[in-house]
Amino acid sequence: MRPKPVIAIDGPSGAGKSTVARELARALGFQFVDTGALYRTVALLADEDGVDWSHGPRLAKLVEGHEFAFDSKGILYLDGNPVGDAVRTPRMSLGASEVAQHSEVREALLVIQRVIGKDGGVVLEGRDIGTVVFPDAEIKFFLDASVLERARRRFEELLAKGRDITLDQIAREQEERDRSDRERTLSPLRKADDAIDVPCDDMTAMQVVEHMLELVKSQFSFD
Ligand code: DC
After folding, report:
1. Most CB atoms within 10 A, among 12, 99, 104, 171?
2. CATH number corresponding to 6-216
């Protein structure tokens, strides 16, 4: 067993995984890893290099030609530069979901994720952390919330950023991404058999973090 656990957090988009994972990592002094940011960055790189999102082998070559690194706060750097909000657009949400369908891309990103997490002391959030990336994670959570609640949260987030978008548009896009994440052949979004269900509809992000923190502390003791 690792001296400090690997904490896997999976769930559909908009369930609040990033906020919760970041806060949980901060409370424990662990590294936070937003794995969706890796897929988003592949979609962005492809756009910049004129590579089609449907071309798995060329996308994987792109991944291999660049350096991906997370700093201690969980900010993703590409070749030494912070990736930032450029990957947080609706186009990159769509692109990430498309590039994530290719085995070559998933394999290339799997290596990066395993290197970061292998010694523990890390909170990784995504879709396949507990099932594929770290099936041996010491503790696994599956965060979920209703479609409406998830759309409402994303809507408020984007509104705060000044984006011109409607709740209905977000709900439709989210349903489409949910469908593609759950129905894809490779590493589909699925709750691991040994994951703890965390229904998030009626709890604030901080209440969810407190709940998870209690569970982690009741199972592990580390400095
Ligand atoms: O968490 P997110 O919305 O930033 O993720 C963007 C897309 O990346 C999501 O639609 C599916 C894909 N993804 C994945 O396939 N596996 C992961 N571990 C994380 C994200």
Report:
1. 99
2. 3.40.50.300
